[in-house]
Amino acid sequence: MDRSDAFTYIILSVVVLLLLPPPCSSDDRLVPGKPLTSDATVVSDGGAFAMGFFSPSNSTPDKLYLGIWYNDIPVRTVVWVANQETPVTNGTTLSLTESSDLVVSDADGRVRWTANVTGGAAGAGNGNTTAVLMNTGNLVVRSPNGTALWQSFEHPTDSFLPGMKLRMTYSTRASDRLVSWRGPADPSPGSFSYGGDTDTLLQVFMWNGTRPVMRDGPWTGDVVDGQYQTNSTAINYLAILSRDDEVSIEFAVPAGAPHTRYALTYAGEYQLQRWSAASSAWSVLQEWPTGCGRYGHCGANGYCDNTAAPVFMWNGTRPVMRDGPWTGDVVDGQYQTNSTAINYLAILSRDDEVSIEFAVPAGAPHTRYALTYAGEYQLQRWSAASSAWSVLQEWPTGCGRYGHCGANGYCDNTAAPVPTCRCLAGFEPAASAGCRRTVAVRCGDGFLAVEGMKPPDKFVRVANVATLEACAAECSGNCSCVAYAYANLSSSRSRGDTTRCLVWSGDLIDTAKVGLGSGHSDTLYLRIAGLDTGGTAKSDAVKIVLPVLACILTVLCISFAWLKIKGKRRNRQKHRELILDVTSTSDDVGKRNLVQDFEFLSVKFEDIALATHNFSEAYKIGEGGFGKVYKAMISGQEVAVKRLSKDSQQGTEEFRNEVILIAKLQHRNLVRLLGCCVERDEKLLIYEYLPNKGLDATLFDGSRKPKLDWTMRFNIIKGVARGLLYLHQDSRLTIIHRDLKASNVLLDAEMRPKIADFGMARIFCDNQQNANTRRVVGTYGYMAPEYAMEGIFSTKSDVYSFGVLLLEVITGIRRSSTSNIMDFPNLIIYAWNMWKEGKTKDLADSSIIDSCLLDEVLLCIHVALLCVQENPNDRPLMSSTVFILENGSSTALPAPSRPAYFAYRSDESEQSRENIQNSMNTFTLTNIEGR
């Protein structure tokens, strides 16, 4: 090859290379039809962030994740991961579909992750939709008119970036959370999480599983209690802002600032980090929790005097760290290390959410909050000098850890040289941990004002309390109340109720002393033995005045008693009118008369919240499709409190039926309704407490089943039958239960059965034989076929459910179990085939063989098969069923005809109620014949 040919070859090679597509794209967006491949990246317009597929350890290409990382620093720091739980391999692509959804698909075209973009089909599916990687690190799917249909900032992983917000929404009570990685090279969700408390929407936690690690204090409308205001030289901004329907934690940095973020590490460290160009590393500006910042660090009745701890942190669902209450304006998490390493943190309230947001000024290095896999929440900043992330601050530490000083203890951070755990006034150190009362308090004891405090956790907010005096009266009037705190949410950012009255019962957990100088503290009023309502020691003069007062009280006693009785009557009438208003519908035949005659126990919502420790999970004894059930002590009586779920579409209907139908139904085999509570948007029912819970909890538990010998089971069968007979025939109205099943039969201390849950029950008029509905509700497997398929129900529908329940009690097998009935699809078909083959006695549960009378078992099986016959007219009435069970013999009974079998869902889905629009395609009916 001569020199001319060689030169020509070189020129052509260069041209070809220039024409080849680059392996990495610098474009900042995706469009439909142009997917992002596993070896390419998208870079934001300013070059700060890149998006693509990565391997956490760079050594396992068989596990790739779609992520976003800093593009302009040498250390790859991933701030967002899409497919955390579904890693992919080479050949995978990210596509923006014509329906405006983001989809990760593998080489075979299988979808491995989708963003589930909503609203795109209506406004975009025309090819003009784009997915843009912003220079803030936010991936945004935009419609042709520029509307954001979806953004990664609303689906955070372990990093909190400037411009991002962590929202707590009022209407849905949902909360955004940071979730740590499982390990340094494992992006799957770890055990630590950080975000708003969905129960109160008033404070932020860090959790380790279910254990709190760190906690903020309740929001007071101005600032977050327990925090110091940032100074005017701050270059990062973190705020808690309140809008109409949300509270959000928002974070921002000024233009040109170094990369900054909050990160929650896999070790449970919440860090404020900033990139240092000098060191080429992330520097940790601050870290939480530390010292007294840890949840409950000072124990029961102790408090931690702490200036750290800005937000709540979890390990799973266990609190790890908690800040003080929110106060509504701007807060700072004590990120000050120098004038160039401060960020602005605020809690902002908007229309339907509260969010935590932060910002950094122009020219600042990269800054972020990161939740590490070790459970460290860090404020990090990138250091260009060291080319590493520096940690400006880290939480939790010391007193910042949740409950660091134990119950009733507090962390005094003003003690030199290190924070010290102390006991609250009126308490002394306990032998194990925390503090205990020196003298028990009584109802008449007064309250001591303790200033400069971060309020404890586990509070109940009393709504519509306008003054400090009214808040004090709420607590003074409740003997269970041990402390209260009040704030006027006068900030323009506050929404709705502009006051905040918090009350506590039981131990005081995670308390700290932040001092008056911070401007972000509460005055905590503690009930102290030996104090009068003015907070001073009682004197002998009181004893002198008492006899005089006794004489006056004697004169007033009769008048007071008369007024009290009159007031109770007025309250009962108002409560009754409120119930009638809630329960009124156009088809309430005769129901209002039932309510008019019923004497309700009216209980205030705040009293129920105190009795259940703010509906603590520790007091929960059950949960169903319409809400949760809690155990409580009210007026000296153990009760079960059913709290209807706010987001249940059938909650009001269930409440209406429960109140009206049980109002006058008094029978020993029906659960007794003691009262109810209707306040604001809360609906609660108060029942007698039955310690042995549902029949299913014992019948299907291998360790508890032996408690149910045959005598006990036969009594349960007859008791349920008597209860149904009362509903169908002996009560004032004919009532169809429609949801009879093992979990709705509760057992008292003597194992006597009581039918519960009348949320789906219906009343029949005189001479009405059946009814039809287009909304089929109930539990698959217990529903009669004519009801499940055609919506026709009658007393015979309950008879069918009783027959299924009867088979379960005899066999000890769930209706849809397949593990104990070989190849039969359900218990009914299994029992029918055993009957046809003459093996009926083999149906009996092995645990009752030694205690049962075979004739009684055979009689019950015969009755059960009569109850589940396909034709409703062939099924016996409950009056006949009760008579047979009490006196009959199977020799005089007709042979049962075949039962109906229709396919229904798996046992897991049957645990919750179903609301199905009637459809002939929903079920299949199968003819049954013996083998």
TrEMBL record:
Domain Protein kinase: 615-893
Protein name as catalogued: non-specific serine/threonine protein kinase
Gene Ontology terms, MF aspect: ATP binding; protein serine/threonine kinase activity
Domain Apple residues, every copy: 443-529
Residue ranges of every copy of the Bulb-type lectin domain listed in the record: 27-154
Highest taxon, organism lineage: Eukaryota
SUPFAM superfamilies for the chain: alpha-D-mannose-specific plant lectins (SSF51110), Protein kinase-like (PK-like) (SSF56112)
Signal peptide (UniProt feature, chain positions): 1-26
GO CC aspect terms: plasma membrane
Transmembrane segments: 544-563
Predominant place of localization: membrane
UniProt keyword annotations, A-Z: ATP-binding, Cell membrane, Disulfide bond, EGF-like domain, Glycoprotein, Kinase, Membrane, Nucleotide-binding, Receptor, Serine/threonine-protein kinase, Signal, Transferase, Transmembrane, Transmembrane helix
Lineage of the organism: Eukaryota, Viridiplantae, Streptophyta, Embryophyta, Tracheophyta
Catalytic activity: L-seryl-[protein] + ATP = O-phospho-L-seryl-[protein] + ADP + H(+); L-threonyl-[protein] + ATP = O-phospho-L-threonyl-[protein] + ADP + H(+)
Source organism per UniProt: Oryza barthii
Pfam families xref list: B_lectin, PAN_2, PK_Tyr_Ser-Thr, S_locus_glycop
Location(s), subcellular: Cell membrane
EC numbers for this chain: 2.7.11.1
A single BP term in Gene Ontology: response to other organism
Membrane topology note: Single-pass type I membrane protein
PANTHER family referenced in this protein's UniProt entry, alphabetically: G-TYPE LECTIN S-RECEPTOR-LIKE SERINE_THREONINE-PROTEIN KINASE RKS1, RECEPTOR-LIKE SERINE/THREONINE-PROTEIN KINASE SD1-8
EC primary class: transferase
Residues where ATP binds: K642
